[in-house]
Design brief:
Structural class: alpha+beta
Helix content: 25-40%
CATH topology of the largest domain: CBS-domain
Strand order of the largest sheet: 6-12-11-10
CATH superfamily of the largest domain: CBS-domain
Strand content: 15-25%
Number of helices: 12
Order of helices and strands: HHEEEHEEHEEHEEHHHEHEEHEHEEEH
Number of strands: 16
Shape: globular
CATH class of the largest domain: Alpha Beta
Largest sheet: 4 strands, mixed
Oligomer: single chain
CATH architecture of the largest domain: Roll
Amino acid sequence: MESLRQLEVSRFRSEPVILPPNATVSKVIGVLRDLNAYEVFVPMSNKVGMVTARDLLSVTNLETKVETLLKYVPRLSPTSTISEAARVMMDYRIRALPIVEDDVTGEVKSLSILNAMMELHSKTIKVKNIMTANPITLDEEDLVSKARNIMVRRRIDHLPVLAEHKLTGILTSNHIAASIIPPEGVERGIRGLDEQKKLNFPVRDMMDRRVLTCNLDDDVLTVLRKMLDQHATYALVTLWGEELQGIIAHRDYLKLLAEPPKEEVPIYIIGLPDDPFEAEVAKDKFRRAINLLKRRFPYIEEARSIIKISTPMKDKERRRYEVKVAIKTTKQMLTYSETGWDLPQIFDILTNRMKRLVTQKTKRKHPSQRESTLS
């Protein structure tokens, strides 16, 4: 994983979609639809603006100039790393970034990065370990206008659709953006359509019923291959094909490559497995847990985790993990341990135990004494 993380974005360069600042919303929609794209770039002097399908959802006048919708995104140089690009895409919730020298000379897309991830090998990490659990959903009878408002407010692009608590479809920002005007409308230059009225119909009339699904225990690369082969930007994680458990999208894969956020305290992990996905998921869970604790309890000075791996003689395909965690505070050392067959799950269990123990200690203290909870 580290070797991919350090590659330069110039190796993944593709041709960007560029429009002038005076292009209209109807023009942008037509371009996105014709090219099956999600974003366009608009160079502005020493900055680069971007407009995505999601940005178009709140527009009421189709003759609005695109320059009024721009959000300016960080620019990458050809020598920027994939790790840097992944972090920015995650933070900004976008799928591409411009590569700039004197002008915009290309772009790096999340799709290109995910294709490169297929060169890695993993059959250990399951979808349940990296998915976004309990996603926001819609009912089939909800109005499309409601879906649009949720996407704009929550900065998301995928909304699973349910009927009687069972998965029946999905609605995306591209679906809504492409429907704002019909194909002939782009050609004729229709003006000022009443978007609110146009979206005043049930989600079931627009959603895609051909949903890409996977199971909780599918491995991450198998699911990624399905997404790439079917040109999908998501997969819905289900139980028995009907009960929605979560969603996995580009962002969930990118977080494994992204530059880690600044650590609140020194964190050390010894004995990580060779599987790149398994190692990254374990590191991410441990970092998040310790950083969260540090923000609540500033007396943590250091955190260490030691992972020991054993292989049963009768089943050499399976590995048993023993994980020990030591948290050093200003006055004492707190230790935890757990064993099991699923490394990310072990870190989830340890995280919950650490939070629970700290919470219990806090409740037993008088408010004036809480500052010494971990000391």
